TrEMBL record:
Keywords recorded for this protein, A-Z: Aminoacyl-tRNA synthetase, ATP-binding, Cytoplasm, Ligase, Nucleotide-binding, Protein biosynthesis
HAMAP family hit by this protein: Glu_tRNA_synth_type1
Quaternary organization: Monomer.
Main location: cytoplasm
Family label: Belongs to the class-I aminoacyl-tRNA synthetase family. Glutamate--tRNA ligase type 1 subfamily.
Enzyme nomenclature, EC number: 6.1.1.17
Source superkingdom: Bacteria
Organism, as annotated: Kribbella pratensis
The protein's name in its UniProt record: Glutamate--tRNA ligase
């Protein structure tokens, strides 16, 4: 009995691929595809191949290659074969496989599976328009399928340079999509398509199936936007099998749902929130971002949104991917990330905050033991309040910034350090000054301020503690006030209260 997903394959024989181009940033759609391929391979104990689509040399950059590798490693989506990993099916850069493609095309031509097409663009356009006018299919009409030697010579004498087209079968192409079920494409809608341009340059519809065949890829999980090309690729896989290229096995396809952005439009790489770099800079956790992207078409359970990648690998079933388009929700993405931040051990949370505090210039990349002690003590105060690591400076920067560089946010000052704020700060400074260094602790600080500001001045907590919070943190929102004062220390706290009092 064969498995619905594996067929007669052993699980460990599963081979999937992720084929990005080194032309720019990875988008959330790219990452979702990489994640599903990675989870699929890991679930079965199979192999994930990283293959770089770099045949468009005019758009490739050295930075693009490096970015791709670094981005996947930052995400934790490590590959088993490919650049920097090696493997038995290389090279894994398509730009280094041009001789392979030329050899395969020659074999297809010799076997009659492909042929030269000499039609000019003007002729193609004219015949397509005539077909549309007649209500017929406007794809390629097979004009050059069976040219006589004399016709070929006539075109050659005219100086025409032919493209190479695949001879499509005159029958329906039917396949069982792992996400969408059985799909049928009728032959009248599948014209012979171009494999090689007139300048000899191989195209995507050739190089990807050839690489899949030679690299023995068993399953292809990719976006639904590529679904229209699938029957053509299946026809090429079959032709390759007939001429002895590859394993002879046609890969199984699973077309993943489209990722939609605002206005129910496909999320474009030009849209805000679509590129990985933004999430790295904002301090998303890789595991948080991946968790959310997994939800764009798949779920681990109806009543559960937060899970680890190990749990995803164990539970992943491509047959349970929803075929409907998935909408990217930035707020939910941030909420899932926040949930993963809560799950981090406190020491790890502190370590992940350091680069962001260092980037803000308030902490050294290698903090002192004294600074680390303060940071560790502050983590329990903020871990439940933060959504991304880029909030580190906003929440804790005031604890580390040099006094001469400390500034009160102008908006906070305008809204809080007005009216009775001077009297509040004056009373707070006097109450706290009565505490010695040995008494400077959260409980004593709270008792002193409550006695002075609430009991003494008769203020409500918001009006009593708001000015003190802004004076010592520079912001209207901070970690708990009394704990913050203890961590900041007596000398700095009194200095900031005095400075705020003088300017109020």
């Amino acid at each position: 009995m064969t498995d619905a997903v594996l067929g007669d394959l052993e699980p460990s024989a599963v081979r999937v691929r992720f084929p990005p181009s080194p032309t720019g940033m990875l988008t959330v759609g790219n990452i979702r595809s990489a994640l599903f391929n990675w989870a699929f391979a890991r679930h079965f104990g199979g192999t994930l191949v990283l293959r770089i689509e770099d045949t468009d040399t005019s758009r490739n950059t050295e930075e693009g290659y490096r970015y791709t590798y670094d981005a996947l490693r930052w995400l934790g989506l490590n590959w088993d074969e490919g650049p920097e990993a090696g493997g038995d099916f290389g090279p894994y850069l398509q730009s280094e496989r041009m001789d392979i493609y030329a050899d395969v095309v020659a074999k297809l031509m010799a076997a009659g599976k492909a042929y030269h097409c000499y039609c000019s663009q003007e002729e193609l356009d004219q015949r397509r328009e005539e077909a549309r006018t007649a209500g017929q299919h406007s794809g390629y009409d097979g004009h050059c399928r069976n040219l006589s030697p004399e016709q070929v010579q006539a075109y050659v004498d005219e100086g025409r340079r032919p493209v190479v087209r695949l001879r499509m079968p005159d029958r329906p192409i039917v396949f069982d999509d792992l996400v969408r079920g059985e799909i049928t494409f009728l032959p009248e809608n599948l014209g012979d398509y171009v494999l090689v341009r007139a300048n000899g340059y191989p195209l995507y519809p050739l190089v990807n199936p050839v690489d899949d065949a030679l690299m023995e890829i068993t399953h292809i999980l990719r976006g639904e936007d590529l679904l229209p090309s699938t029957p053509r690729q299946i026809a090429l896989y079959e032709a390759l099998a007939e001429i002895g290229v590859g394993s002879g096995r046609t890969p199984r396809f699973g077309h993943l749902p489209m990722v939609m952005g605002e206005g129910n439009k496909r999320l474009s790489k030009r849209d805000k929130g679509s590129g990985l770099t933004e999430y790295v800079e904002r301090g998303f956790l890789p595991e948080g971002l991946l968790n959310y992207l997994a939800l764009l078409g798949w779920s681990i359970a109806e009543d559960r949104d937060v899970f680890t990648m190990a749990e995803m690998v164990e539970a992943f079933d491509i047959r349970k991917v929803n075929s409907n388009a998935a909408r990217f929700d930035p707020k939910k993405c941030e909420a899932i990330n926040a949930a993963h931040m809560r799950l981090l051990p406190q020491e790890e949370f502190a370590q992940r905050m350091i680069p962001f505090l260092a980037t803000a210039g308030v902490l050294a990349e290698q903090p002192s033991e004294e600074q680390l002690a303060v940071l560790r003590a502050a983590v329990p105060l903020v871990q439940e309040r933060m959504n991304t690591l880029s909030e580190s400076d906003e929440m804790l920067g005031f604890l580390f910034v040099d006094e001469d560089a400390f500034r009160v946010d102008p908006d906070a000052a305008a809204k809080v350090l007005t009216g009775d704020a001077h009297a509040v700060l004056d009373a707070a400074a006097k109450a706290l000054a009565d505490l010695g260094d040995t008494e400077w602790a959260t409980e004593a600080i709270e008792a002193a301020l409550r006695a002075s500001l609430i009991d003494g001045l008769g203020l409500k907590p918001k009006n009593a503690f708001g000015p003190v919070r802004v004076a010592i943190s520079g912001r209207r929102i901070s970690p708990p006030l009394f704990e913050s004062l203890e961590l900041l220390g007596r000398e700095k706290s009194l200095h900031r209260l005095e400075r705020a009092r003088r300017t109020t």
